[in-house]
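To illustrate the input format used throughout this study, we show a single complete record. The first block contains the structure-token representation of the backbone; no residue identities are included at this stage. The design step must infer an amino acid for every position from geometry alone.
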């Protein structure tokens, strides 16, 4: 059975109403206005961008992405054909060069992923070096639009859950995943709401 997809603002609004019925403690966030869609295009460029952005600043990642695009390294074939020196000149470290080449050579059927369940997407993508569960779940959520994808390993989600739900301590990934079970089948909407709340609360209290 294909996953439920959040494709439009109306889809997101209906899912937010479902979430509110499942967990009334989201009311302050959901009452403040529409949640952000944050949909992106799927396919190789989306995961290439995710790998580039690992462990570097937003500005550095943007600069590397721009150099890769300018050099024409935005497709699997182009990356596989690129000289190591050319990739390094774009700003890729040796590990990231290995990761982007692994991604380019993995033979991912991007179209087939659109109909795959979230766990299948995670299984396929995490088999590729350089892609962990968090990245795969973020891809499912924002590039594929899965309504129930939930990256419980995200520290901002964990801290937002602690603050919004009044927990005594920050939940672990396992704890947050268990806590979010009652929010199925709209956990991706819960994640959006938690990120919004995190920005509010951290903005009020300063950086963690």
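Output of the design step:
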């Amino acid at each position: 059975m294909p996953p439920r997809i959040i494709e439009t603002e109306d889809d997101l609004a209906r899912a937010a109403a479902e979430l509110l019925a499942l967990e009334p403690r989201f009311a302050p966030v959901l009452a403040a206005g529409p949640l952000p869609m944050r949909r992106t295009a799927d396919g190789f460029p989306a995961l290439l961008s995710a790998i580039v952005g690992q462990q570097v600043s937003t500005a550095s990642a943007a600069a590397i992405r721009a150099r890769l695009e300018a050099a024409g390294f935005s497709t699997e074939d182009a990356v596989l054909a690129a000289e190591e020196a050319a990739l390094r000149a774009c700003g890729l470290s040796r590990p990231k060069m290995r990761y982007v080449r692994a991604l380019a050579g993995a033979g991912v059927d991007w179209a087939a992923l659109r109909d795959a369940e979230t766990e299948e997407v995670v299984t396929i993508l995490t088999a590729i070096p350089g892609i962990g569960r968090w990245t795969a779940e973020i891809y499912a959520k924002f590039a594929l639009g899965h309504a129930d994808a939930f990256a419980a390993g995200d520290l901002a989600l964990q801290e937002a859950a602690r603050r919004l739900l009044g927990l005594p301590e920050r939940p672990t990934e396992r704890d947050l995943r268990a806590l979010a079970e009652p929010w199925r089948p709209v956990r991706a909407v819960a994640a959006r709401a938690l990120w919004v709340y995190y920005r509010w609360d951290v903005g009020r209290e300063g950086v963690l």
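Structural context for interpreting the output: The two ends are 41 Å apart (CA to CA). The first helix runs from residue 9 to 22.
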